[in-house]
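Fold this sequence, please.
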Amino acid sequence: MGCSNKDGKKGCTSRKDDLLDAVDNALDYWYPTRVWGEMRNEFGRGPSFEEVQDVAELLQENLGLATWAVQGGESDYCDFVYVLCIGRQPAIGMVRDLGVQSTVDIAEGSSDVCLRIAFSHLERMAAVQQVTISVSEGDGFLQVIEARRSGVYDAPLLKRFRKLVASLESLDFRHIDMGEVSHPPKEFETGSYVDALSDSPDIVNFLFFTQSAETTQTTFLPEPNT
């Protein structure tokens, strides 16, 4: 998502400069050696998972859409909130993440479209991306596939995305445009990232999560009532 302020370029540029300054300051502070994986050994200034859960509930009220919170993995520097934009409830992601698979019938070909918010542990920053979660059936199991994009692109999501960003900012989170952090930071070293993931880390990998912003994750679950 870029700035939609076509005529007021000064305001648009100022917001972008503020965002880039915040990102640069966070990188400089948390990576004094400028190497991925060599982070300061101290508590971050971002929200706890309990606060992220509270934020999920507030967003559900503000947006009128189903939400759920998920803790980040051991290699992530963030926790997540999913916002169901297209699909039925309980969402496929709720079946996967909240353990409600025995109470819902999801069939092969089902899919949901969500906005996934990453809340950094390091700073009060949040980055949003579009994800599609779909299902295929195996022999006694469900294959849940989450396809992530490095931003929000589909027109039906944009109005909800803008309202979501406004809600995040009202809760004192700085929204970081995913497009601005989906490239490697200048003059930083990759450390062990290349060995582990066979790629160079983007800014988002320094401040939020380890995996590429554009990736696909597959989870295998038992079929309901099996």
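The CA atoms of residues 74 and 124 lie 19 Å apart. The beta strands are 67-70, 78-86, 111-120, 125-137, 141-148, 174-176, 216-222.
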